[in-house]
């Protein structure tokens, strides 16, 4: 690390699996950064100031250039910009990186479905749309089935990681999404159904970057839906 390196700022939320991906990458690469924890659903949040989509994570630069948002976009930037520090997180091979990107997309879709069903559930029994909730549940179950199959195939092949032989953005995204299923209680009994997946996630969760970023609940006091 350059001694005079100014820290980046990551707008984050303590339970956010999206922001967690970026936090893990920054920690693993040893990049100085500060966390600005927000509750993006509350009126006092700074999030809309930096992202018209009003979502976090958002990466702010010390040189004042435009903020960058969307976790996958930030994650790719971290991997490319700091390719010479810590684990590479991308392979540099176009086809393997396509596989990594696909797993990141699957993880993001799973996390989106968890967030949507969580808020649908908060609407109150008389307002919940059962078909909408069912749609999100199908996505969650489908993504978990896919992760179960992906991980089983890799474990059966004697591989520790999802793509190639080193830790990548695919592993980080998968762990963040699957642990969010647990944290938000989005699918009961998945760990009994996908035993290899549960074991694989538990193993990575003990590593540097993962331990420090385990999700922590926050308290939304305003009505969101
Ligand atoms: N596609 C976005 C999704 C991020 C996202 O949904 N973040 C949540 C917090 S976990 C958020 O800020 N939601 C506020 C909103 O949707 O208005 C990303 O990957 O960064």
From TrEMBL:
<dbReference type="Pfam" id="PF13409">
    <property type="entry name" value="GST_N_2"/>
</dbReference>
<feature type="domain" description="GST C-terminal">
    <location>
        <begin position="96"/>
        <end position="223"/>
    </location>
</feature>
<dbReference type="InterPro" id="IPR004045">
    <property type="entry name" value="Glutathione_S-Trfase_N"/>
</dbReference>
<dbReference type="InterPro" id="IPR010987">
    <property type="entry name" value="Glutathione-S-Trfase_C-like"/>
</dbReference>
<feature type="domain" description="GST N-terminal">
    <location>
        <begin position="6"/>
        <end position="86"/>
    </location>
</feature>
<dbReference type="InterPro" id="IPR036249">
    <property type="entry name" value="Thioredoxin-like_sf"/>
</dbReference>
<dbReference type="InterPro" id="IPR040079">
    <property type="entry name" value="Glutathione_S-Trfase"/>
</dbReference>
<protein>
    <recommendedName>
        <fullName>Glutathione S-transferase domain-containing protein</fullName>
    </recommendedName>
</protein>
<comment type="similarity">
    <text>Belongs to the GST superfamily.</text>
</comment>
<dbReference type="Pfam" id="PF00043">
    <property type="entry name" value="GST_C"/>
</dbReference>
<dbReference type="InterPro" id="IPR004046">
    <property type="entry name" value="GST_C"/>
</dbReference>
<dbReference type="InterPro" id="IPR036282">
    <property type="entry name" value="Glutathione-S-Trfase_C_sf"/>
</dbReference>
């Amino acid at each position: 690390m350059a001694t005079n390196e100014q820290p980046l700022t990551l707008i984050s939320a303590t339970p956010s699996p999206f922001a967690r991906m970026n936090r893990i990458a920054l920690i693993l690469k040893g990049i100085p950064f500060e966390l600005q924890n927000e509750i993006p659903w509350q009126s006092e949040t700074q999030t809309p100031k930096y992202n018209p989509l009003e979502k976090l994570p958002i990466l702010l630069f010390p040189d004042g250039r435009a903020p960058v948002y969307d976790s996958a976009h930030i994650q790719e930037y971290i991997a490319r910009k700091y390719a010479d520090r810590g684990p590479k997180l991308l392979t540099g091979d176009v086809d393997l990186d396509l596989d990594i990107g696909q797993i990141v997309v699957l993880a993001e879709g799973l996390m989106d479905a968890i967030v949507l069903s969580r808020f649908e559930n908060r609407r109150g029994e008389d307002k919940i749309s059962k078909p909408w909730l069912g749609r999100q549940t199908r996505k969650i179950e489908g993504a978990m089935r896919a992760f179960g199959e992906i991980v089983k195939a890799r474990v059966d092949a004697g591989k520790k990681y999802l793509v190639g032989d080193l830790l990548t953005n695919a592993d980080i995204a998968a762990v963040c999404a699957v642990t969010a299923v647990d944290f938000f209680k989005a699918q009961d009994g998945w760990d009994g159904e996908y035993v290899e997946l549960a074991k694989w996630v538990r193993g990575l969760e003990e590593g540097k970057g993962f331990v420090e970023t385990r999700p922590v609940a926050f308290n939304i006091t305003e009505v969101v839906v």
